[in-house]
Amino acid sequence: MSRLQTMKIQLRYFAALREALGPGETLELAGPATVAEVRDLLIARGGAHASALARGRAVRAALNQAMVAESAALADGAELAFFPPVTGG
């Protein structure tokens, strides 16, 4: 009989997302997940998470400090960061 392995990831928020949600948190997941699944899980919390990470908003993701698509798979101990697109001038 096999059991699903839980995993913990570290979430970080930057710029306007940090102002709305704080610097970050540790999240425990029931099993394997993608960036998109974690974003949807956070949106489902409602409140500030729902508005800050809403699907209509432009949000970028970095996994272990490398830019990734939302289809990227997470591993136990990963650091996942969310931030708005950055514009320069």
What does this protein look like?
The relative contact order is 0.28. It is globular, with a radius of gyration of 13 Å. The mean pLDDT is 92. It has a 5-stranded mixed beta sheet with strand order 2-1-5-3-4. The chain is built from 3 helices and 5 strands, in the order βαβααβββ. It has one domain: Roll (Ubiquitin-like (UB roll)), CATH 3.10.20.30. The chain has 89 residues and is α+β, with helices and mostly antiparallel strands. This is Molybdopterin synthase sulfur carrier subunit.
What percent of residues are in strands? 25-35%
The SS-based structural class is alpha+beta
User: How many structural domains does the protein architecture include?
Assistant: 1
Mean pLDDT: 92
Helix/strand order, N-terminal first:
EHEHHEEE
Low-confidence segments, given as residue ranges, are none
Write the layout of secondary structure elements.
Layout: E1 7-13, H1 16-21, E2 24-29, H2 35-43, H3 47-52, E3 60-63, E4 66-67, E5 79-83
Parallel strand pairs: 1-5
Antiparallel strand pairs: 1-2, 3-4, 3-5
Features of the shown structure:
89 residues; alpha+beta; Ubiquitin-like (UB roll); five-stranded mixed beta sheet; 3 helices; 5 strands; 24% helix; 27% strand; globular; Mopterin_synth/thiamin_S_b; ThiS/MoaD-like; nucleotide binding
Quick structural gist:
The chain has a single domain, classed as Roll (Ubiquitin-like (UB roll)). The protein has 3 helices and 5 strands; from the N terminus they run βαβααβββ. The protein has helices at 16-21, 35-43, 47-52; strands at 7-13, 24-29, 60-63, 66-67, 79-83.
